[in-house]
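Complex 307.
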Amino acid sequence: MKEIKLFAPATVANVSCGFDVLGFCLDPIGDEMIIRKTDQPGVRITKIEGQDLPLSTKKNVAGVAAEALLASLATSFGFEIEIYKKIKAGSGIGSSAASSAGAVFGINELLGRPYSRNELIQFAMKGEVLASGVGHADNVAPALLGGFTLVRCNKQVDVVALPSPSELYATIIHPKIELRTADARSVLKKNIPLNKAIEQWGNLAALVSGLYTDNYELISRSLVDVIIEPERSPLIPFFSELKGAALDAGALGSGISGSGPSIYALSRGEETAKKVRQAMEKVFLPMNIDFDTYVSKINTEGIKIIE
Ligand code: HSE
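Predicted structure with L-homoserine bound:
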């Protein structure tokens, strides 16, 4: 095999109580990439459509991640990458993660899979370091593995795949303003009070338990963020109105998707997720803010080859 075309999905990181550790994979939104094996060593990004991003390998998250993977292997092959961006940079649904994860996944396939999907996370994270200054795996892990993922440790990458209850659906609203992850991280306090930490890890543990037991009520009670959301939500226009509308329409929970500005909601069943979308759209329509919305089942497959 010399060339593959793949779909690299968008993802929701944090999922309220799991800042930097929890994430899940979306279905209808994602980038397409073509990866080509060449005899000339090294990585070249030959085409980017849909977004004004650098072609220079060292300045592009896909290039940096691909180079990290190649540096770990004794191979004389090189690779060309074409990126067809559908996920907007700075949207909060894992745009940089999709490109980074797609690049390492594609190269790994063309090399005959020297690494498992889980092992590829460490290389894809190098792209996140370029994008946000911090190596967090909570977007690249669900992009590569699909479903819900939990990062036990971001330093010596240790990621656990979690189950995805079959009736769980996500609604995403993306107000078309750019919020860079680095900026959304700069507003965060470096220390947190013990009582808040206790609430947060109680909710995170209970959410994981709810995913394992298909306990939608427990999932709903646990989708609470007492640490990050209060600090970041002022950066997102009409956040509390959108979240309130989602909950009133029957969502199990709602919060900031990744570092924002997108907002996610989780619902039991597609019908409720669609009602949540309508309710969120109703908040934004009179506000003169351009936005996109999506309803998605949880994508349990992750990145996939399409050609
Ligand atoms: N966990 C990261 C953050 C995700 O919230 O900064 C960025 O998409």
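The radius of gyration is 19 Å.
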